[in-house]
Amino acid sequence: MIRTVVIDSDTLTRYGLSMLAGAHPDVEVVGETGSAAEAGELVARRQPDVVVIDVELADGNGLHLVRSLRDRYAQLGIVVMTSLDTDDVLFRALDHGASAFVVKTAPVVEVLGAIRHAAVAATSFTATGLLDALTRRREQETRFALSPRERQVLTLLRDGLSIPEIAGSIHISKSTAKTYVARLYDKLGASSRAQALVTALRTGLIDYEATPGA
After folding, report:
1. 160, pLDDT greater than 80
2. pLDDT tens-digit profile of 72-100?
């Protein structure tokens, strides 16, 4: 029996997963909540094998919750279930320590497969379309061909640093920092920071998560 806790702000999703579990004898929903704030106490109390977490919770970021639970429970299976079916969200789930990624529109067999995988292989990530997503990421990296320093500058731009702050952060001159930014704009086909970041986010060159403290 796979003891499962569901953390999703959508009542229908929680109800649907409970009904789904009831139809399959190897899965049992032992707790549910729509609140990120209640999730930690619920998991500690119910001690599930697997938690299913939505990316978008009403009172918090589901991926932050994934990271928090992974740091506390190394062998806990964590399934990220979301309506945001994009490569960026998939890779963010992977980076935050999820065991599986599944979209809410997926067939029942795929949802069950994600839960079962998470129960037996908590530290091994799986997702339908992962190979295709990896291929697209490699294609984007080849297309833009950013150097390690350019990637570093792009991340600092995402974190909101000005050109003087970027220069100070990575110990280069302001003129060199300005050159790196101009080169990034050229490679990304952008004329402003906003355009560059939109392109970089859309193509998976960076994710939405700012550096802690930024």
Report:
1. yes
2. 999 999 999 998 777 888 988 999 999 99
* 34-40 CB contacts, 8 Å cutoff, 24+ apart: 34/7, 34/8, 34/9, 34/10, 34/58, 35/7, 35/9, 35/59, 35/60, 36/7, 36/60, 36/61, 36/62, 36/64, 36/65, 39/5, 39/7, 39/65, 39/69, 40/68, 40/69, 40/72
How large is the angle between the packed helices 62-72 and 36-46, nearest 10 degrees?
Answer: 30
Of the candidates 131, 152, 162, the residue with the CA atom closest to the CA atom of residue 206: 152
Separation CA 24–CA 54 (nearest Å): 22
Map tokens 């490699």 to a residue: 138
| pLDDT (tens digit per residue) in 161-171 | 999 999 999 99
Quick: pLDDT tens for 112-143: 999 999 999 999 999 988 888 888 777 776 77
- Note the residue count of the chain: 214
Q: How far apart are CA 194 and CA 186, in angstroms?
A: 14
